[in-house]
């Protein structure tokens, strides 16, 4: 049983580092094969606006002018993801849709279609690695302090719910919980990270903060969600949920 893989599905580039990098190390140290799956393509108009100077960068206190295309931005985000996966020592890294990732804009205009795609992906992994543990994000349970939820994350949660009669080994991790004050971070179960897990998690997070434009590294994770990355870096815990 312990040779069955633990499959972690990251909705976006950086969710794995923020939400379950420590759990990846936990499973690795327990001797489990760990596979990491990136679900979406990284499309993000607001992020492109920051890198191209249409919006002020509060971090660097300047208007950037990198003249990136959306295609280049999406590749740069995937590079950060692969670098994070390498730091975590996962056994296999997947980017769905032949390396493109699902369109992260789709849940905003065709949520049902996107939900079907995510459900099919989980089913495909289950049929290839029957009996695997499937690790996703808590979606509906994981809101920003203002109560809003990310529809891509919600689709991960709802896909798992729809598969509960076929797959029983699900676990969920919160990401936006790190947007709350430390004393207001809750979940079904709180995992205290061993120091070796936290060290690896911090290395993974740092891949999203590594800024070296000449080398094609734009710290896109940190330009996108700096507060989550900083909070996850400082917090020694991860926040889990189970099937309701
Ligand atoms: Zn900047």
Strand order of the largest sheet: 3-2-1-4-5-9-6
By CATH, the superfamily comes out as LmbE-like
- End-to-end gap: 24 Å
Question: H/E series, N to C?
Answer: EHEHHEHHEHEEHEEHHE
CATH architecture: 3-Layer(aba) Sandwich
What CATH first level would be assigned?
Alpha Beta
**Cα Rg:** 17 Å
Number of helices: 9
Mean pLDDT reading: 97
Low-confidence residue ranges: none
What characterizes the major β-sheet? 7 strands, mixed
Helix-strand category: alpha/beta
CATH third-tier fold name: Rossmann fold
Shape: globular
**Domain module tally:** 1
Question: Helices, strands, pairings?
Answer:
Layout: E1 6-10, H1 15-29, E2 34-38, H2 45-51, H3 70-88, E3 92-95, H4 106-109, H5 111-128, E4 133-137, H6 151-162, E5 170-173, E6 189-192, H7 195-207, E7 211-212, E8 217-218, H8 220-224, H9 226-234, E9 237-241
Parallel strand pairs: 1-2, 1-4, 2-3, 4-5
Antiparallel strand pairs: 5-9, 6-9, 7-8
Helix pairs in contact: 1-7, 3-7, 5-6
Bound molecules: zinc ion.
Residues 57, 59-60, 64, 223 line the site of zinc ion.
């Amino acid at each position: 049983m312990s040779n069955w893989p633990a499959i972690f599905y990251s909705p976006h580039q950086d969710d794995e580092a923020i939400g379950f990098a420590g759990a990846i190390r936990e499973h690795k140290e327990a001797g489990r094969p760990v596979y990491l799956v990136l679900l979406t393509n990284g499309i993000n108009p607001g992020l492109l606006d920051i890198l191209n100077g249409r919006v002020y960068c509060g971090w660097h206190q300047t208007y950037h002018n990198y003249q990136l295309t959306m295609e280049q931005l999406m590749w740069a985000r995937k590079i950060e993801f692969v670098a994070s996966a390498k730091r975590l020592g996962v056994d296999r890294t997947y980017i769905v849709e032949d390396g493109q990732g699902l369109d992260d804009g789709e849940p905003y205009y065709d949520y049902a279609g996107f939900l079907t795609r995510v459900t099919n992906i989980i089913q495909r992994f289950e049929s290839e690695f029957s009996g695997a543990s499937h690790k996703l994000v808590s979606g509906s349970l994981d809101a920003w302090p203002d109560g809003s939820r990310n529809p891509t994350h919600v689709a991960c949660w709802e896909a798992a719910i729809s598969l509960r009669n076929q797959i029983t080994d699900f676990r969920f991790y919160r990401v936006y919980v790190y947007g709350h004050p430390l004393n207001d971070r809750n979940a079904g179960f709180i995992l205290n990270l061993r120091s070796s897990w936290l060290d690896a998690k911090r290395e993974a997070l740092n891949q999203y903060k590594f800024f070296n434009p000449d080398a094609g590294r734009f710290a896109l994770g940190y330009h996108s969600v700096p507060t989550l990355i900083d909070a996850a870096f400082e917090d020694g815990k991860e926040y889990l949920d189970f099937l309701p």
